[in-house]
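Internal tracking record. Fields below are filled automatically when a chain is submitted to the structure queue. Please do not edit lines marked as system-generated. If the sequence contains nonstandard residues, flag them in the REMARKS field before resubmitting.
Queue: standard
Priority: normal
Entity type: single polypeptide chain
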Amino acid sequence: MSRVLVADDEAHIRDVVQYALVREGHTVDTAKNGEEALARVRAGGIDLLILDVLMPELDGLAVCRRVRDTTHAPIIFLSSRTEETDRVLGLELGGDDYVTKPFSPRELAARVRAVLRRTAGEPAALEPPPPPLVRGRLTIDRARAECTIDGHHLVPLTVTELRLLASLFEHPGRVLSRAQLITCAYDGDHHVTTRTVDTHVRNIRAKLAVHGVDAIATVHGLGYRSV
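SYSTEM-GENERATED OUTPUT FOLLOWS
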C-alpha cells in the first residue's frame, strides 16, 4: 500500500487517523508540527500527506506551498475552519481534498483511497502506456504524469489537475459538464464538489497563462471544453 504522512498538533487526532489508515494497510508517519512535516517530506518516500491547517511552527497551508516545489504527492487538508474561502484557498495552493473537523475516520480513510486512486500515475500492469495527448503547444504525457509546453517547458500541474486537463483533451471540442468531469477526472469521487472542479480549472489556467497558453474555455451554464 502507500506511505502516508499525518501532520497534526493534536496527538489524539494523529492516533485516530493513524489507526484508521493502518487498518487499511497503509504505512503511516506522523508529525506534530509543520517543521517536522516538512522535514519528513524532504526525506522522501511519502505518497500522500494529511495536513492540519492550524499547526504551530508552520501551518498546513505553508507546508503545502513549500512541498509543492519538490513533490506532486496528493495532499488532504484537515481543518476546523468550515468557510468556503478556506476550502478554496487550500485547493488553490495545490491540495487535492479538504476535510473539516470533526470528521469520521472511516470517511477520511475512504477519501484517502479515492485520492490515491485518481492520482495514481502508473499504467495498469501489462498494458501499454497511453499515447501522449497533443493540443497546440501543449503535450500531456500520461505515462510520465507530465505536461509540457513547446516540448520542453514543464508545467507544474498536480496529478489531479493533469487528469482534469487530460479529460478535456480526450474529448476535443466537446463540452463536459462539471458532473462529467468529476466522473472522468476524479473517478466519480462523490466527495468532489463542482466548486472543487472550478478551483482546479482556475489553477490550470493560471499555470498555463505564465506561458501565454489558454487551453480551457468556459461554456456558461454547461461546463468546460478544450480549445
